[in-house]
Amino acid sequence: MRSEVKVTFPGADPVRIELASSEQMSSEDARSWLDSQFVELGCEPVRPTGKVLAVDKVVMVAEGAGLAKFRDAAWAKEFARAVGGALNRPYVHVDVATMAISF
Question: Which of 6, 25, 28, 49 holds its CA 20 to 30 A away from the CA of 83?
């Protein structure tokens, strides 16, 4: 089964990353990768309570990475593998402008 992660940034063509389901990270590895990127990219929690949900991390990491980081095919693939493992959905659309995820 194939899966796709699509990331859209304002004023740019969407970034589409296709994966085979076997390429997804385990949920534990995905959380760990997203956590490390969240810190490395200097992301801040979006909720006043400081609680960060998996979907929040995905959006914040995409925003923190910016379009330039997604031009690095290896990094983009790791992002998609982590998103697939963390959210366990075959199709994920990350809209950076609206800070939203759809399935």
Answer: 49
Q: How far apart are CA 36 and CA 19, in angstroms?
A: 22
DSSP, collapsed to helix, strand or coil, labels residue 20 as: strand
Kindly state the tokens that stand for 79: 């992002």
For all residues of the chain together, what is the average pLDDT?
94
Say how many C-beta atoms besides its own lie within 10 A of residue 7's C-beta. 25
Q: Supply the DSSP string of 25-83, one letter for each residue.
A: PPHHHHHHHHHHHHHHTT---SSTT----HHHHHHHHHHHHHHHHHTSHHHHHHHHHHH
Terminal-residue alpha carbon distance, the chain: 16
Average pLDDT over residues 57-64: 97
pTM of the predicted structure, to 2 decimals: 0.93
